[in-house]
Design goal:
196 residues; mainly alpha; Tetracycline Repressor, domain 2
Length: 196
């Protein structure tokens, strides 16, 4: 699917994300999406061939939106620590405005849905790692981040911490301010890995 998503496809993606959040992967059917949107099933099929295609489009949609804001952050910051904070704060800000889309990136159930979906999620995780690891190495080189922990493990610590917080937010039905808690989490992780 192309990177350009029509307004109608966006509506379908958002309806699918809402169903995924409330009913899990088993509840995500073309029939339920059509019902959520007051559409006919054939109207959904005019935009997507299958449930799998909707999930893949959802993953692309979220990552394209997060990627756009992340690129501006990386280009605009000199401090590695401040860059990491800004990247994750931009992510928390995006999901606070689009909470149901958090399920696309932070749902373990999707990994078992199909090989194509599994491959897409793996690719997304690897692309984040590829983007973050040079930042961590740069921070170690310039004396901002500790060299006691390998750069790859710094990224694991950051990504795992954020993933757990996002999972808690989603399973609590978005009951707390993800921007506030997210900023606090990233600040505290940075305190653990920065050079004092």
């Amino acid at each position: 699917m192309a990177n350009t998503v029509s307004d109608r496809q966006t509506e379908i993606i958002e309806a699918a994300a809402k169903i995924l959040t409330n009913s899990g992967v088993s509840g995500l059917t073309i029939k339920n999406i059509a019902k959520e949107m007051n559409f006919s099933e054939s109207a959904i099929y005019r935009h997507f061939e299958s449930k799998e295609d909707i999930i893949l489009a959802m993953l692309d949609f979220v990552m394209n939106n997060i990627g756009t804001s992340t690129f501006g952050v990386i280009m605009g910051n000199t401090s590695v620590i401040e860059t990491f904070k800004a990247i994750f704060n931009a992510q928390f800000g995006y999901f606070s405005k689009h909470p149901y889309l958090a399920v696309a990136i932070f749902s373990d159930g999707l990994l078992e849905e199909s090989t194509r979906i599994n491959d897409k999620i793996t690719m997304i995780m690897n692309s984040r790692k590829v983007m973050f690891e040079p930042l961590a190495k740069s921070g170690q080189k310039n004396g901002e981040l500790t060299k006691e922990i390998p750069a790859e493990e710094i990224i694991h610590i950051l990504m795992a911490s954020v993933r757990l917080l996002m999972y808690q937010w989603r399973t609590s039905h978005f009951s707390f301010d993800i921007q506030k808690k997210g900023a606090s989490l990233v600040n505290n992780v940075m305190k653990l890995i920065e050079v004092k």
